[in-house]
Amino acid sequence: MSDLSILTEAIKNGNRADAVRLTSEALSGGDDLHAILAALVDGMDDVGRRFKSNEIFVPEVLIAARAMKESMAQLEPKLLAAGIRPEFTAVIGTVQGDLHDIGKNLVGMMWKGANFNVVDLGTNVSPERIIDAVREHKANLVGLSALLTTTMPAMKGAVQAIRASGVNVKVLVGGAPITGDFAREIGADGFAPDAASAVEVARQLVAA
Ligand code: B1M
Known about the structure:
This protein is an alpha/beta fold. The protein has helices at 5-12, 16-28, 33-52, 58-81, 102-113, 127-137, 152-165, 180-185, 195-207, and strands at 89-94, 117-120, 141-145, 170-174, 190-191. It has a 5-stranded parallel β-sheet, sandwiched between helices. Strand 3, helix 7 (152-165) and strand 4 (170-174) form a beta-alpha-beta unit.
């Protein structure tokens, strides 16, 4: 059994080469797949915490996420072969009329890091596409991002359309102009001000 805390450290520090090598060594050394996954997720959790408290910024998160992604690329086939799949699926997108995707991508990466299956619909996403994706992927969670005050009504429209469609899914919203009050007003289940909080809120929503 290798010391997986070194792998967690490599993710925390965004050290891609070490993270990939240590994941490979853990796999060939026969470490428990859940333990390897937990080591990777712990690393991204720490990145999320430090981002939230402004100890690190977007570039560091992206670098850590890349290390996580490449380590996960090695682990995922083994998890699939062992029948271990993410427990929850999230559909994420930026609302119709809005092309901003940097924050949305960060949230998606953090969710992947937290072992969610993430279906990213991109930007300028219509309510119909969201509802179709929820049905197709049997999603537990929808994440909606908006960066413009002018696309906040589209976020409201998306939440209303999701509710009217009857799909049973939790909706989490975020983006620079979005507030907790606005989220409540439009009937969303949750709001997160940043990508790290989006992991905490998503976990609470799907567990509820
Ligand atoms: Co745009 N833009 N932009 N822009 N842009 C803003 C948002 C703006 C505030 C700039 C300004 O005027 N000061 C302003 C909006 C004003 C307003 O609505 N009140 C604005 C404008 C007006 C526009 C255009 C209309 C400009 C024009 O063409 N006249 C146009 C609109 C295009 C469109 O969408 N239809 C436009 C275009 C663009 C670019 C294409 C050039 C580019 C986007 C590139 C891209 O995303 N691929 C762009 C950019 C980069 C910005 C700024 C500079 C940066 C946004 C960003 O990526 N921030 C922005 C000004 C600013 O914010 N300083 C601005 C970094 C990112 C990590 O933060 O996205 O806030 P953010 O995400 C955070 C949280 O909000 C949260 O977590 C993230 C990480 O913590 N979060 C979520 C986000 N989504 C979440 C979802 C969640 C939970 C949390 O759950 C699902």
